[in-house]
């Protein structure tokens, strides 16, 4: 998925009130009779008489790659079933998915982020004996495990990296082959860019990825966003240091613009030196046309154990009373094909870090431009245990919004770092119904 698609999806989720309803609560409490009509009103139903119904949320570059992979399976003589791929818009995907599940018409396969697993875990088919975790990177595969059962199969992880514009580096008098992969190098590069060019030094995500950037930096300082009991854990010296640093990027050092849209547009014009983004962003910078590099996003001072952070796209099979064994077996085989046999293409063409161990070791991936440009660095971080996943908790979207809204307000100049900590902590408490 292109970064622009992700930014729009994050905005749309707020517009459409994603924080107003607990999906797990709806799945448990709503009767199928009461919501069957709602499922019908959307015009989206799951099972069809022929083929495996597969709902994705991929658009842009990775959407085209997923479409091509599915088409190749459908055109092959090796398989006797067809995959009916349906692309659901980002801002509607989870709403339509849970509506289909409670309405009794879920798809046979759907894409799900690992952080969303908690709210859906009681309504998924286990594939522990049919697929298992052995073929995959274990840290990534664990995102689909609940109480010892495999409820989701990973196709990738998509962590953050620090992209940088080599042309801007050269203009600033920096060595473009010396990546800004430590806090000292990052500071050196940022200061050189603002002093020697007319460009912004840096940009970083807004909305939910603003909160995840905070989580990533805080973990490197030994902190956490949540306790194991879902209490806010960032009202600490480390939490305050991270939020202050993010404030200073904009309002003290003046490395980044106040308006994220200004930063995004400037980056795509080649007028920003560095930018935190995920694996998907490789298609964006290729289209932008400037020479770029990718390095580890280890920008936080005094971080003894810096990490990147990445969610995973998982494939799930929602429970359905109407699905027979043959259809289930076809769904399982489709998941195996997409997560294993075609997984090298998901990396080399879509830009995400494949979950399959075999794909990661394949010549087709290792010899690709994408491995050289980005995936080699992402894999190094995962392989060196410099990687964390956002936890699967109840009320994911609700509590994340309570963190990113004050962070966005701080970037806009409307809130102090101290107020961000207080407001976000209160919001997280409310998201988990403790106040």
Task: Name the features.
single chain; 435 residues; alpha/beta; D-Maltodextrin-Binding Protein, domain 2; 2 domains; 7-stranded mixed β-sheet; 5-stranded mixed β-sheet; 20 helices; 14 strands; globular; disordered N terminus
Summed up, the helix count is 20
Total strands: the figure is 14
Low-confidence stretches: 1-48
Radius of gyration: 22 Å
Overall mean pLDDT? 90
Secondary structure class reads: alpha/beta
Strand fraction equals 5-15%
Reconstruct the topology from this structure.
Layout: H1 3-15, H2 23-29, H3 32-42, E1 52-56, H4 60-75, E2 83-87, H5 90-102, E3 109-113, H6 117-120, H7 138-141, E4 145-146, E5 149-150, E6 153-154, E7 156-165, H8 166-171, H9 183-196, E8 200-203, H10 208-220, H11 237-251, H12 260-268, E9 272-278, H13 282-288, E10 292-295, E11 308-311, E12 313-316, H14 325-341, H15 343-348, E13 353-354, H16 357-361, H17 363-366, H18 369-383, E14 387-388, H19 396-411, H20 417-431
Parallel strand pairs: 1-2, 1-3, 8-9, 11-14
Antiparallel strand pairs: 3-12, 4-5, 6-12, 7-9, 7-10, 7-11, 7-13
Helix pairs in contact: 3-5, 10-19, 11-20, 19-20
């Amino acid at each position: 998925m292109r970064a622009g698609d992700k930014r729009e999806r994050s905005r749309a989720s707020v517009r459409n009130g994603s924080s107003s309803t607990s999906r797990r609560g709806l799945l448990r409490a709503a009767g199928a009779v009461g919501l069957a009509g709602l499922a019908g009103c959307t015009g989206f139903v799951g099972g069809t008489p022929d083929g495996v119904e597969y709902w994705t949320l991929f658009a842009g570059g990775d959407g085209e790659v997923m479409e091509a992979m599915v088409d190749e399976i459908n055109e092959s003589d090796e398989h006797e079933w067809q995959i009916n791929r349906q692309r659901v818009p980002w801002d509607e995907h989870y709403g339509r998915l849970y509506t289909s599940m409670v309405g009794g018409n879920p798809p046979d396969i759907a894409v799900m982020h690992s952080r969303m697993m908690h709210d859906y875990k009681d309504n998924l088919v286990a594939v522990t004996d049919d697929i298992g975790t052995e073929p995959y990177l274990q840290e990534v595969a664990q995102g689909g495990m609940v109480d010892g059962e495999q409820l989701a199969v990973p196709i990738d992880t998509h962590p953050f990296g620090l992209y940088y514009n080599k042309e801007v580096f050269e203009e600033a008098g920096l060595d473009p082959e010396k990546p800004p992969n430590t806090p000292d190098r990052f500071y050196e590069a940022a200061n050189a860019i603002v002093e020697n060019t007319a460009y912004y030094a840096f940009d970083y995500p807004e909305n939910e990825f603003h909160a995840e950037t905070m989580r990533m930096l805080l973990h490197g300082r030994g902190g956490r966003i949540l306790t194991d009991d879902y209490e806010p854990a960032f009202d600490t010296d480390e939490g305050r240091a991270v939020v202050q640093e993010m404030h200073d990027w904009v309002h003290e050092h003046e490395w980044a613009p106040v308006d994220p849209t200004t930063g995004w547009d400037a980056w795509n014009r080649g007028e920003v030196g560095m930018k935190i983004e995920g694996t998907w962003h490789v298609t964006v910078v290729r289209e932008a046309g400037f020479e770029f590099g990718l390095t580890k996003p280890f920008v936080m001072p005094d971080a003894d154990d810096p990490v990147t952070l990445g969610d995973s796209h998982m494939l799930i099979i929602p429970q359905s009373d109407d699905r027979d064994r043959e259809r289930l077996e076809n769904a399982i085989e489709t998941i195996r094909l997409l997560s294993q046999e075609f997984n090298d293409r998901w990396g080399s063409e879509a830009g995400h870090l494949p979950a399959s161990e075999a794909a990661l070791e394949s010549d087709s991936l290792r010899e690709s431009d994408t491995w050289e440009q980005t995936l080699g660095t992402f894999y190094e971080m995962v392989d060196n245990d410099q990687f964390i996943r956002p936890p699967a908790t109840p009320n994911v979207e609700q509590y994340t919004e309570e963190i990113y809204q004050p962070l966005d307000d701080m970037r806009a100049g409307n809130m102090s770092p101290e107020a961000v900590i207080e407001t976000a902590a209160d919001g997280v408490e409310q998201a988990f119904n403790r106040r």
